[in-house]
């Protein structure tokens, strides 16, 4: 039985960059922490001395609670880009976001070089309709410089009452000057799964992994099979491009939907006894029909779990460009009335035992999008996890190299990757990687 995973859309609206979270755990001291030398704790006196000096001598009376919160957050963010402190308000906001409904603009963001960087706009949201693109750097919010603000401060400034306007100034690669965009705040109701029939092919777009995702995939397959006769149905395209991730249990469930058996993903913490393995249960909702998974440089975390599981088990052909490379697991640890901490506690591994941290999923078939004239000569790539300051290092000898092209055209007719997938499923084009054949994943259960 799959343990219920909880909390945080990977890089949900105006949060940290993509993370995958496990179920809430009570705070516990590790063996190492209990055994730490006593003078380690004596060094905490230094913090107390500085705190008292700031309280007594700073030019203005500081907010004690804010000082402590910033100190805690500084400690956590120094570990890696995905660990942080969540104030009670932010913790409540995060819980709302995982339900798939929240207020705001509709963008996933992180902080890069002192500016807010757009990981990707969420489909059919105010930011998406206003033309915000993945990779945009937000330099000003309502005329105020972002430089010098923390990510949390910038997020607070971008939030506001539904129906009010916000003006953001974005720096876009290749643009001669910052671009001003006016966006009307709205309630963001995320429909994480959309689908349609492409004549004889079922197309399933998963934009993120929230609490409704697996139900959406099940509904998509059910509706597609009801509209396309079984003999006519050529297969499915599962589009995970620019999907920043989300809930671990949903990624496992979506992978399970296409697998009959075998390991889906494993997570490994500091100690060997913390290793957890998640296995598929019998029952392939797609009934063995061919599957092509689309990924790109904006596909991160939970979406990489799905792509990696189906790729390793030769259940699907992965097509597109190298994924983001976010292969760490964050656990939400509640602190009672004091909010929670989001702490990186493990790495996750594909069924063949490979960590994609700072490497990404390499597609079986690489396909670059053809760019419109206005984007030619301009950067349309993400730097990936390997480009984030302070990221966990990659394992193995292959080195680092995540991130790639993240452009997806709005018109399906111009979508090079989608049209290649359709042609492969219909037999109009051939490739040695489709259908996937060969040895089964090393950890497959027989």
TrEMBL record:
- Provide the leader sequence positions: none
Pfam family example for this protein? Answer: PDZ_2
**InterPro entries to which the protein is assigned, alphabetical:** ClpP/crotonase-like_dom_sf, CtpA/B_N, PDZ, PDZ_sf, Peptidase_S41A, Tail-specific_protease
- Composition-biased stretches, type Basic and acidic residues, lie in 375-394
Task: Give every PDZ domain span.
Answer: 91-159
Keywords of this entry: Hydrolase, Protease, Serine protease
Where is the stretch described as Disordered?
A: 375-413
**Gene3D superfamilies referenced in this protein's UniProt entry, alphabetically:** 2-enoyl-CoA Hydratase, Chain A, domain 1 (3.90.226.10), 2.30.42.10, 3.30.750.44
Family named by the database record? Belongs to the peptidase S41A family.
PANTHER family this protein is in? CARBOXY-TERMINAL PROCESSING PROTEASE CTPA, TAIL-SPECIFIC PROTEASE
> Know the name of this protein?
S41 family peptidase
Q: Which organism is it from?
A: Roseibium aestuarii
